[in-house]
């Protein structure tokens, strides 16, 4: 759970317009301050989870912020420079209204903002808290963590929202996290002295005076030298030694909201569904997109006969494929007209950002490796890597086809959605042009309820992937070599091979080769006549360069 929440914090960094690991560094600071303030062991553990999740709801108001201020990421990044209340906050917002617009339009927008936008902006803080609370609840965190998260925008002087709490009525866990958030930014940009100066300037207004008084330059010592991921995750994890040292009882652990450190397979998928909804919240036109793509891609993977573990991987990769859109300003996603060259480049970064968000934990990194390739195309015209053909794993090809099909049916600010027939025709055209994989397209269309052309039946009930493995084994390749060439895991190759041998009733390579030749599989593979295989796809000459992320 700690690693999962830590990964989500990397997405939050993007939404805040901050460099990667801002929230993790903030969490290291928060834990130090919590210890210095004498918070209980239970509260110190809560500090870690509250810190990692405190600003996760920041994208809930992205649509509204983009309407008034343009680049929502820039607005959030700049907001750290002001004490966010009263006249300083109003001056800040008016200075950003209509950013980038012509002067006359800016004046008009400022007038409208004063009439209606200020109240809308205030409501955005409420949306943030509600969204954060929802995500925390869906991840199974406890009531105490949820209560603290709901106070993210309360202030020591009582001028915060949504409840106007003041002083010690604000949860001490959140008071610590609030200080660590702003202090990390000032320390990173200007050093410890800049952070301490800022905190003293907001002492008694935004921040708890007693906690500010504990903040000296020493609090920030060595922050650049530590691995913030390792320290933050270790602080939040449940471990046998940590529990006994802290003396936490079962009741206290229940208060933290975590009874087990590890998630079950079902819990992991459920958590990634929350990630999917979080990404789609970036823009109203995208609501439900990630879940829809996941459902299509998983069904298509089953139709192709992929092993169960691979189907699950495809399902999960599709759930999180658009996490990286959080790092692109909402004003770009919601732009009605053509994008500029600079805006197109920002858009092209989002698959890479998805992969980076998930890169710090091995299980999530495997999912991210597939998710990050959903805009690659078989002819090399995709992004961000420009991969071609077999270098794109089958799972990524399925997610790509499902993404195109589902997105085309959604109304977007720059175009209207089209009906299912038009989407099917467009996908087939993309396959014919060599951009989308034909078998992935057929599988997605089948999953969406469309009739697909019948292809030559394979003998003995073999699937296309089993034939591919069978032919490669017949040519004398070892399982590891086949895995590299097909961009899958050796375990997946072994599973395909076991199924193929069972279906055709052989146990040796020689017998498999005889079967493959006797049933025309070798010649058909060379000509591309087999469903699922391009001409020569299984030939040894295609082995070079096919070392992309694995499926299994």
What's this model, at a glance?
It is built from 29 helices and no strands. The protein has 552 residues and is mainly alpha-helical.
Please provide a written account of the structure.
With about 550 residues, the protein is an all-alpha fold. It has three domains: about 1-255, Orthogonal Bundle (Hypothetical protein af1432), CATH 1.10.3210; about 265-445, Hypothetical protein af1432; about 460-540, Winged helix-like DNA-binding domain superfamily/Winged helix DNA-binding domain (Arc Repressor Mutant, subunit A), CATH 1.10.10.10. It contains 29 helices and no strands. It has helices at about 1-15, 20-35, 40-55, 60-70, 70-80, 85-95, 105-140, 145-150, 170-190, 190-200, 210-215, 230-235, 240-245, 250-255, 265-280, 290-305, 310-320, 330-335, 340-350, 350-355, 360-370, 395-410, 420-430, 440-445, 465-475, 480-485, 490-505, 510-520, 520-525. The model is unreliable at about 240-260 and about 530-550 (pLDDT under 50).
The total count of strands amounts to: 0
Largest β sheet strand count, sense and barrel closure: none
Structural class computed from helices and strand pairing: mainly alpha
H-E order: HHHHHHHHHHHHHHHHHHHHHHHHHHHHH
Q: Indicate the overall shape.
A: globular
In terms of per-residue confidence, which ranges show pLDDT below 50 for 5 or more consecutive residues?
Answer: 238-260, 531-552
Number of helices: 29
CATH topology category name of the largest domain: Hypothetical protein af1432
CATH homologous superfamily grouping of the largest domain: Hypothetical protein af1432
Number of domains: 3
Query: Over all CA atoms, what is the radius of gyration?
Result: 26 Å
């Amino acid at each position: 759970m700690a690693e999962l929440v830590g990964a989500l914090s990397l997405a939050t960094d993007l939404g805040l317009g901050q460099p990667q690991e801002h929230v993790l560094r903030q969490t290291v600071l928060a834990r130090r301050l919590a210890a210095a303030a004498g918070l209980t062991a239970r509260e110190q553990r809560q500090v870690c989870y509250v810190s990692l999740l405190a600003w996760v709801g920041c994208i809930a108001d992205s649509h509204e912020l983009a309407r008034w201020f343009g680049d929502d990421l820039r607005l959030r990044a700049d907001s750290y420079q002001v004490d966010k209340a009263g006249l300083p906050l109003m001056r800040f917002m008016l200075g950003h209204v209509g950013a980038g617009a012509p002067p006359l339009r800016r004046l008009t927008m400022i007038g409208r903002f004063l009439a209606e936008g200020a109240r809308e902006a205030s409501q955005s803080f409420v949306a943030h808290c509600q969204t954060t609370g929802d995500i925390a609840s869906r991840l199974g965190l406890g009531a105490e963590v949820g209560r603290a998260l709901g106070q993210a925008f309360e202030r020591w002087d009582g001028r915060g929202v949504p409840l106007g709490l003041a002083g010690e009525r604000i949860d001490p866990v959140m008071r610590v996290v609030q200080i660590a958030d702003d202090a990390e930014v000032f320390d990173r940009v200007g050093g410890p002295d800049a952070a301490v100066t800022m905190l003293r300037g907001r002492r008694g207004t935004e921040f708890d005076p007693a906690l500010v008084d504990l903040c000296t330059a020493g609090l920030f010592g060595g922050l650049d030298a530590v691995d913030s991921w390792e320290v933050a995750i270790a602080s939040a994890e449940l471990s046998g030694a940590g529990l006994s040292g802290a003396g936490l009882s079962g009741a206290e652990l229940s208060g933290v909201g975590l009874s087990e450190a590890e998630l079950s397979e079902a819990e992991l998928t459920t958590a990634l569904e929350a990630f999917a909804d979080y990404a789609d919240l970036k823009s109203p036109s995208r609501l439900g997109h990630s879940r829809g793509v996941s459902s299509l891609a998983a069904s298509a993977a089953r139709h192709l006969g992929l092993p169960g573990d691979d189907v699950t991987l495809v399902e999960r990769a599709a759930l999180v494929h658009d996490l990286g859109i959080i790092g692109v300003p909402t004003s770009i996603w919601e732009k009605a007209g053509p994008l500029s060259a600079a805006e197109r480049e920002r858009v092209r970064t989002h698959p890479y950002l998805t992969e980076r968000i998930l890169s710090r934990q091995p299980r999530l990194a495997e999912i991210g490796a597939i998710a990050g390739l959903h805009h690659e195309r078989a002819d090399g015209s995709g992004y961000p890597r420009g991969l071609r053909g077999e270098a794109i794993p089958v799972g990524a090809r399925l997610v790509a086809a499902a993404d195109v099909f589902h997105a085309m049916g959604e109304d977007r600010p720059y175009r209207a959605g089209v009906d299912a027939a038009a989407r099917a025709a467009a996908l087939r055209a993309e396959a014919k042009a060599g951009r989308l994989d034909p078998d992935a397209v057929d599988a997605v269309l089948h999953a969406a309820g469309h009739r697909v052309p019948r292809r030559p039946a394979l003998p003995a009930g073999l699937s296309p992937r089993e034939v591919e493995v069978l032919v490669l084994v017949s040519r004398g390749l070892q399982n590891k070599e086949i895995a590299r060439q097909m961009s899958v895991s050796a375990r997946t190759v072994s599973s395909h091979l076991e199924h193929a041998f069972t279906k055709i009733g052989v146990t040796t390579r020689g017998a498999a080769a005889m079967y493959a030749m006797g049933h025309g599989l070798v010649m058909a593979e060379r000509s591309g006549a087999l469903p699922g295989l391009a001409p020569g796809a299984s030939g040894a000459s295609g082995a070079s360069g096919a070392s992309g992320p694995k499926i299994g």
